[in-house]
Amino acid sequence: MLTVGPVEWNEAARDAAKTLRDNFQSVVVMGVSMGGALAIQLAATSPQLIDGLVTINAPIFMGNSSFASEIVASSADPYLEGWNVPSFFGEPVEEISYPKRYKKSGADLYSMCGLARELLPLVTSPMLVVQSILDPVVPKASADEILARSGAPSKEVLWLEQSYHVSQLDLDRDRIIAAALTFLAAHDL
């Protein structure tokens, strides 16, 4: 991921959405964490490709000045020291992207947050926002702001109480699946 960033991720997401649109009647994008910020950007900039949007613990801001400071701090080490493995309510699951993070990926995360936040008013597809209330990575207020700023004509929220940031791997995973399926059915997607 050191050679690509938000511009390339948006291009790849748009290309994938075009392929889906060419082959399926409905296209619903679901994004987890930074993927949720990417999904917001895609829905805002390519509304003709997206019929529905689901975000899970999506950041549009981080609210973490020590994390931001570590990203730009002068250091020979390209890795973020404060990056930890995720916490779980239930049995821990190995999450392969967490052991080490480059400072560049942290800076890319902040870029993705800002882009998603600015584009939220342009989202016109129905939206389900899923957020763990005890998420130590993405503040609950991020979901509140997504709901407030989104231009989606229909928006719903699912607050999770039995998971932290990687809720799709924790005790709330079945609630996420059930809520997403209910959301899809309610919007004929």
TrEMBL record:
Residues 7-177 form the AB hydrolase-1 domain. The keyword 4Fe-4S does not apply. Keywords: Plasmid. It comes from the Bacteria. It holds the Pfam family Abhydrolase_6. This is AB hydrolase-1 domain-containing protein.
